[in-house]
């Protein structure tokens, strides 16, 4: 035999004891019995292997084993295999199976067959599949154990990564809704044992959609990541911040004694959100509405429903940074809102949406110039609903773009039947304008209807113009190059008007009704409106004053250079007649010209506004084209509540 035990790694120098001498003699005997073939197979095996005595001490380790655990053969020889065990794992004695009767006991570390975690010499984690095989004497008694390790670290890390991704929000790194279920179940069980309660803080970022729509989705993602970081830093070690989706977050607070403690946590979280956020070199101030709930003797789902109910109540009146505590079951109004959202999903399919039109006139002679299209919902049980009654439900169901597409198409189809002098104004939300394919949608509506692009004007808000993202700017450039014009609605109501006018190719500005209402009685408001009129004229823009309700307002605006007007003084929003309905006038006693009004004679003042007689306190009667309660079409009084159609 060409090699002996003297060629293999020995124990460190020192006085050998009887056990060590016995192990060396055993190695010599083993190699003599197995010969050179055994040595070649063992030392060149592609799998990490070690010869270990029955007590768990390493005798010989092959090169693959040494490389795997990061130790030399001399370092492993004579060391117990528990040297490789991970310190964070449970004691080996709690994991091993029972010893087979009649077999001599082996060290527990040798019996842990299967996947286990080890530790390398540098402290890094190692996952292996372990197997052992007992080498016996000729008489069948155990002599040694061949320990085999297969490295599965990469596979285990991949599996862990899949699990982590499944339970982690990829944008913020916070636990997601799937992880919340287990976390909340654990918190509820723990609170019962400790006699305390679990608190939920449900946060919804106020007006985040407006920020996301105007600054772009990338900026919105950066903002959400910063919000998540602040929530993570501001919670206790035992609390868990979770992102539920979109702009909603939840904090699970364990061991809460009472409601005051939960309120204190909510106020602290709101405080850290008060500091400005920096996104793309732009400072943004945020707030959040909060719903709170507290409990222990209930299911996780019940707790979540209560937190959601409290948050819904906090956001009901549109206020910001409001904190509400759950006090009972869903209110009738909340149940009603949920039902309305469900009904709205079917409104488009069931042809329940309607367009009403409000006239826009030349202020000097009240010549009709066009109409603004305003959406209504003919609900099957609630009757005719104004936009304020269901637009929030549309936002909650992400139906805003679908409604906007319907309005755009319907308005173009209606407007093409009008005289060529009349234009149609369509309101466009910031979300819809920034969506991919918006310019194609406008082109398709114009092509289908045959309406000239110059007769379509899209109305956007100042915030959309001021914070327009690249997608918005591109869509606007495409549609305006085609001949469609752009109007700036709510002009001067909270943003930098001049900046907004320079951001996009604005054709028309509409002075908000809130200014027009006080233009006669409030000198400060009058000065502001006069400045807006001068600004618009100076930049070569068309100016429309909204919300004119009496002749005094109309006279003041006319004297100060306002050319166009819109408001109840000239006509309330009403359905316009179709060509078929106009023909119905031929079988009535009223001449067709009077029934059809401006649709046949656009040069007439429409609707007729008689000049008030001196001393006559009665305002002029408003007459519009509509159907009465019996379904007959003609000139009727159209009584509508003073709703805000902006």
The mean pLDDT is 79
Helix-strand makeup class? alpha/beta
- Percent of sequence in beta strands: 15-25%
Order of adjacent strands in the largest pleated sheet? 13-14-16-17-18-19-20-21
Largest sheet: 8 strands, mixed, barrel
**What is the approximate shape?**
elongated
Radius of gyration: 39 Å
What percentage of residues falls in helices of 4 or more residues?
25-40%
- β-strand number: 23
Multimeric status of the protein: single chain
Low-confidence stretches: 1-15, 578-646
Count of helical stretches: 22
* First-last Cα distance: 99 Å
Tell me what the structure shows.
- Helix 12 packs parallel to helix 14 and helix 14 packs parallel to helix 16.
- Strand 18 (485-491), helix 17 (497-503) and strand 19 (508-511) form a beta-alpha-beta unit.
- This protein has 646 residues and is of the alpha/beta class.
- The strands form five sheets. Strands 13-14-16-17-18-19-20-21 form an eight-stranded mixed β-barrel. Strands 2-1-5-4-3 form a five-stranded antiparallel sheet. It has a five-stranded mixed sheet with strand order 7-8-6-11-12.
- The radius of gyration is 39 Å and the shape is elongated.
- Helix content is 38%, strand content 22%.
């Amino acid at each position: 035999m060409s090699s002996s035990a003297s060629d293999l790694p020995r124990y460190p120098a020192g006085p050998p004891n009887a056990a060590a001498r016995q192990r060396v003699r055993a190695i010599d005997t083993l190699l003599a019995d197995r010969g050179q073939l055994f040595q070649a197979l063992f030392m060149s095996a592609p799998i990490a292997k070690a010869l270990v005595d029955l007590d768990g001490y390493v005798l010989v380790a092959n090169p693959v084993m040494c490389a795997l655990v990061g130790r030399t053969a001399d370092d492993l020889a004579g060391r117990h295999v528990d040297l490789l065990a991970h310190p964070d794992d449970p004691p080996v004695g709690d994991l091993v199976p029972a010893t087979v009767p009649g077999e001599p006991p082996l060290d527990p570390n040798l019996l842990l067959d299967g996947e286990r975690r080890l530790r390398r010499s540098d402290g890094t984690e190692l996952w292996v599949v372990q197997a052992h095989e007992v080498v016996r004497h000729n008489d069948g008694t155990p002599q040694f154990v061949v320990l085999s390790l297969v490295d599965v670290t990469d596979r285990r890390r991949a599996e862990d990564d899949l699990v982590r991704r499944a339970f982690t929000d990829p944008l913020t790194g916070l636990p997601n809704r799937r992880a919340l279920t287990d976390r909340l179940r654990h918190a509820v069980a723990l609170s019962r044992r400790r006699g305390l309660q679990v608190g939920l803080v449900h946060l919804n970022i106020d007006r985040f959609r407006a920020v996301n729509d105007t600054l772009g989705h990338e900026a919105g993602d950066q903002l959400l990541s910063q919000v998540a970081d602040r929530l993570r830093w501001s919670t206790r070690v035992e609390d868990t911040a979770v992102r539920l989706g979109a702009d909603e977050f939840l904090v699970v607070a364990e061991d809460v004694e009472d409601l005051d403690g939960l309120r204190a946590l909510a106020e602290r979280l709101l405080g850290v959100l008060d500091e400005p956020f920096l996104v793309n070199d732009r400072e943004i101030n945020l707030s959040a509405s909060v719903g709170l709930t507290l409990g222990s003797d209930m299911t996780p789902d019940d707790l979540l429903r209560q937190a959601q109910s409290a948050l819904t109540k906090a956001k009901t009146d549109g206020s910001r940074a409001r904190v509400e505590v759950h006090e009972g079951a869903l209110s009738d109004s909340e149940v009603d809102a949920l039902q309305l959202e469900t009904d709205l999903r079917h409104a488009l399919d069931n042809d329940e949406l309607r367009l009403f039109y409000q006239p826009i006139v030349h202020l000097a002679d009240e010549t009709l110039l066009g109409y603004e299209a305003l959406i209504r919902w003919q609900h099957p049980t609630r009757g005719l609903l104004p936009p304020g009654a269901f637009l929030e439900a549309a936002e909650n169901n992400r139906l805003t773009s679908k409604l906007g597409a319907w309005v755009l198409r319907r308005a173009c189809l209606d407007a093409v039947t009008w005289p060529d002098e009349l234009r149609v104004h369509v309101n466009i939300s910031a979300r819809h304008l920034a969506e991919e394919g918006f310019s194609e949608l406008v082109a398709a509506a114009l092509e289908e209807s045959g309406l000239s692009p110059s007769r379509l004007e899209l109305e956007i808000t100042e915030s959309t113009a001021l914070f327009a993202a690249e997608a918005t700017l591109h869509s606007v450039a495409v549609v305006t190059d085609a001949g469609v014009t752009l109007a700036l609605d709510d002009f001067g109501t909270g943003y930098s008007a001049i900046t907004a006018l320079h951001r996009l190719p604005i054709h028309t500005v509409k002075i908000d009704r809130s200014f027009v209402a006080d233009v006669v009685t409030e000198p400060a408001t009058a000065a502001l409106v006069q400045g807006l009129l001068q600004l618009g004229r100076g930049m070569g823009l068309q100016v429309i004053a909204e919300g004119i309700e009496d002749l005094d307002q109309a006279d003041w605006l006319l004297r100060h250079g306002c050319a166009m007007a819109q408001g109840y003084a000239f006509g309330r929003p009403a359905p316009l007649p179709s060509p078929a309905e106009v023909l119905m006038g031929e079988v009535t006693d009223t001449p067709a010209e009077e029934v059809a009004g401006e649709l046949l004679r656009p040069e007439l003042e429409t609707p007729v506004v008689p000049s008030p007689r001196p001393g006559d306190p009665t305002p002029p009667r408003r007459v519009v084209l509509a159907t009465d309660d019996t379904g007959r079409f003609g000139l009727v009084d159209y009584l509508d509540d003073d709703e805000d159609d902006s």
